[in-house]
Amino acid sequence: MTHVLVVGAGPAGLSAAVAASDAGARVTLLDSGDGLGGQYWRHLPLQRPAQREARLHHGWAAFDRLRGSLAGIEVVTEAQVWAIETHDGIAVHVLIGPADAGGRAARTLTPDALVLATGAHDRTLPFPGWNLPGVFSAGAAQALAKGERVAVGRRAVVAGAGPFLLPVAQSLTAAGARVLGVYEAARPSALAKGWLPRPWRLLGAAHKGGELAGYAAHHLGRRVPYRLGRAVVEARGDGRVEEVVIARLNADWSPVPGTERTLAADAVCVSHGFTPRLELPIAAGCRIGPDRFVAVDADQRTSVESVYAAGEITGIGGVDAALVEGRIAGARAAGAPASPADLKRRGATTDFARRIDAAHGIRRGWTSWLRDDTVVCRCEEVAYGPLCDAAAATDQAALRSVKLTSRAGLGICQARMCGRTVEELTGADPARAEDTTDRRPLAAPIRLGDLAAPATTCGKDTHV
Amino acid sequence: MSAIVPWETDPIRPDEPKPLHITVDGTRIEGLQGQSIAGVLLAHGTTEWRTTTAGRRRGVFCGIGVCFDCIAAVNGESDVRLCLRRANDGDTVTTQDDTKEAP
């Protein structure tokens, strides 16, 4: 019997696991968290049940269906994959137990096929004061509202770019915060360019369109202003956020001088798009495309034999794309054909990803809101001025030298937060392997003692 | 200031949560079973607990285990991401001050 291992239990991973199981494979599903659903269906833990939790979510019925279809699938939560070998068959090394704990149970799995569905995290561009307490990534505000019922502030500003800002504002409101406004960097012309052409193609992503329309209606109803062509260009406060400065933007996202406006706020939630979590695909040797997502064919097959990828690591397409890609990857990994209907739907969701980029993609003028003392690398606290000096003093624009000189990107997060920003600011060419910050020696942080401990085949397997 | 939705008035109708207690830098704090340690702190309005090498304060930033801003020592083990770690009754949390560590 074919053994399919799926890593990541968000929409793509769940649908891949169910599809592979339906196709007759033996399936193991791993997630680093202690619940299922990923960031999209981030929800309260088992210890805090709620009767109407579905109200906080879109497509909760789909999640319930998937969750109810896991019978016969081995589900292992709190399972952190930290290395993958693919030179002689597939070997996946996992630590199982509470996050960052020493002495977690080590386990090595050797499946016949692997489906990677590790998702994405939001990317936040730096701005003066973004390292103050009270500034959060929009994803943090969302995760805490849905997964903890915590509002990160009482007077919150949501800013950045992309459709994700709208559900974040809604979740904050539903958690008791007053959202002063949603400030979207894209101007109306960019939105029109991304969303208006060939509207019939959006029919393929009808559910997504409905979801966005729902948010728009919600904001009108609640009177949360949704302002286009604006950005938070500074957060100020004595030790924590007390006010934010909002400015109008040009088409290239450079602030228009003289348009700054100050709002008293205690929380700023910012996201400018998403960065795929490429650690595991890179560890597995999968080819990364020029768009810096995992390259896959129409069957979701990566460049590595028997390794498949689905969801946001193959392109930011939203939940509909993730579900379809997961089903295709799961079926193919199990050796079954993908359904023709899914293959057709896949085309429609790809169009959605292109639209998001055309409308909300980061424009180069954003760097003009930086100051010399604006922290770029949060871990090593490297500011923009010294980073530029290091880049200028380095003969060739080799990112490695710039990093070693300035220490930007060398901190504990391993450049997960600032990597792509440092590349952009130093003129690195990420197409060159030595210039990308995506490569990390270990796919996940582990304690040195665990590196030395032998792997076993037994572990704490939890069915959720 | 961060705050938790009171369970009694939360429209999603949660069951009555069960309490737990953790100790943060010697102070006993009440939380709810199922909260992350960061969740316990944020529910109390605490949004910062780490001090960086430059003496700046940090708390949660990414909320999903990517940025490492929220790390603290838990039961004697340093560098634990509090946004990922569920609170257990009796956990001892010691905040980290990077200005005090050996260079």
Parts with pLDDT < 50 across at least 5 consecutive residues of chain A: 457-464
Q: β content of chain A, as a range?
A: 15-25%
The largest chain-to-chain contact, stated as pair and per-chain residue counts, equals: A-B, 58 and 50 residues
**What general outline of chain A do the C-alpha atoms trace?**
globular
Net shape of chain B: globular
Low-confidence stretches of chain B: none
Which strand order does the major sheet of chain B show? Answer: 3-2-8-6-7
Provide the fold topology.
The complex is a heterodimer of chains A (464) and B (103).
Chain A: E1 3-7, H1 11-22, E2 26-30, H2 60-67, E3 74-76, E4 79-85, E5 91-96, E6 105-109, E7 113-116, E8 120-122, E9 135-137, H3 138-148, E10 150-151, E11 155-160, H4 165-174, E12 178-184, H5 188-195, H6 206-222, E13 226-228, E14 230-236, E15 243-248, E16 261-264, E17 267-271, E18 274-276, H7 279-283, E19 307-309, H8 318-333, H9 340-360, E20 375-377, E21 382-383, H10 384-393, H11 399-406, H12 419-426, H13 448-452
Parallel strand pairs in A: 1-2, 1-7, 2-3, 7-19, 9-17, 11-12, 11-17, 12-13
Antiparallel strand pairs in A: 4-5, 5-6, 8-18, 14-15, 15-16, 20-21
Helix pairs in contact in A: 1-8, 3-4, 5-9, 8-9, 10-11
Chain B: E1 3-4, E2 19-24, E3 27-32, H1 37-43, E4 50-51, E5 57-58, E6 71-74, E7 77-81, E8 92-94
Describe the structure.
- The complex is a heterodimer of chains A (464) and B (103).
- Chain A has 13 helices and 21 strands.
- Chain A has helices at 11-22, 60-67, 138-148, 165-174, 188-195, 206-222, 279-283, 318-333, 340-360, 384-393, 399-406, 419-426, 448-452; strands at 3-7, 26-30, 74-76, 79-85, 91-96, 105-109, 113-116, 120-122, 135-137, 150-151, 155-160, 178-184, 226-228, 230-236, 243-248, 261-264, 267-271, 274-276, 307-309, 375-377, 382-383.
- Chain A has a five-stranded parallel beta sheet with strand order 3-2-1-7-19, covered by helices on one side. In chain A, strands 9-17-11-12-13 form a five-stranded parallel beta sheet. A three-stranded antiparallel beta sheet of chain A has the order 4-5-6, with no helix packed on it.
- Chain A starts with a strand and ends in a 12-residue tail after the last helix.
- Mean pLDDT of chain A is 90; it is low at 457-464.
- Chain B has a five-stranded mixed beta sheet with strand order 3-2-8-6-7, covered by helices on one side. In chain B, strands 4-5 form a two-stranded antiparallel sheet.
- Chain B is globular.
